[in-house]
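User: Sequence recovery, please. Input:
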């Protein structure tokens, strides 16, 4: 097998970026610790998307993360899991073809850095609802406005459970997700 360049089309495209080339297939060694593989994704035609990970002949000790430059998140993903995200064509960074990359675990990741990236929220911006992913059992979720006022508090939130924010005014909020010792605060935009 040899490298295969990515042929562009008018529909949605996804490719690896390697040596300034877009590839649909790359003949290479398996990724190593701390390696980052940039992805090229363009011509978005919808708002909501899912990356689904499949692996073959994979080193089970190597963790894969999806790095989302727009959301400023590093989210672990395992084979058979989905990474759900949304695209706002009106925001250049949201629809950037260079928004995503795959990162492979690095023993130098600190626990704090990992914990900060454990939870993610989608869609962001949100209209009437959003979801929190990365919850292992149940979590506490609180939403505060930028004046520090808590506007919503929920307990026993499950992974990917729909959280209704239709009653909130448009603006920027901070969503705190706490599960056991893990806690993360993520900025969300309510449209």
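Assistant: Recovered sequence (191 residues):
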């Amino acid at each position: 097998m040899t490298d295969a360049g990515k042929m562009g089309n008018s529909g949605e495209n996804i490719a690896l970026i390697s040596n300034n080339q877009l590839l649909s297939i790359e003949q290479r060694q398996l990724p190593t610790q701390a390696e980052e593989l940039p992805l090229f994704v363009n011509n978005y035609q919808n708002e909501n998307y899912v990356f689904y990970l499949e692996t073959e002949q994979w080193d089970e000790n190597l963790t894969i993360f999806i790095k989302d430059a727009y959301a400023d998140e590093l989210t672990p993903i395992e084979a058979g899991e989905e990474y759900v995200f949304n695209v706002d064509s009106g925001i250049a960074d949201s629809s950037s073809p260079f928004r995503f990359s795959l990162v492979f675990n690095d023993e130098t990741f600190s626990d704090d850095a990992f914990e900060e990236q454990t939870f993610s929220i989608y869609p962001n911006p949100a209209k009437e609802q959003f979801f929190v992913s990365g919850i292992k059992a149940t979590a506490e979720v609180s939403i505060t406005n930028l004046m520090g006022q808590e506007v919503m508090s929920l307990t026993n939130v499950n992974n990917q459970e729909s959280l209704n924010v239709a009653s909130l005014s448009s603006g920027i909020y901070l969503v705190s997700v706490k599960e056991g010792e893990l806690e993360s605060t993520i900025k969300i935009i309510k449209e």
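The chain has two domains: 1-117, 118-191.
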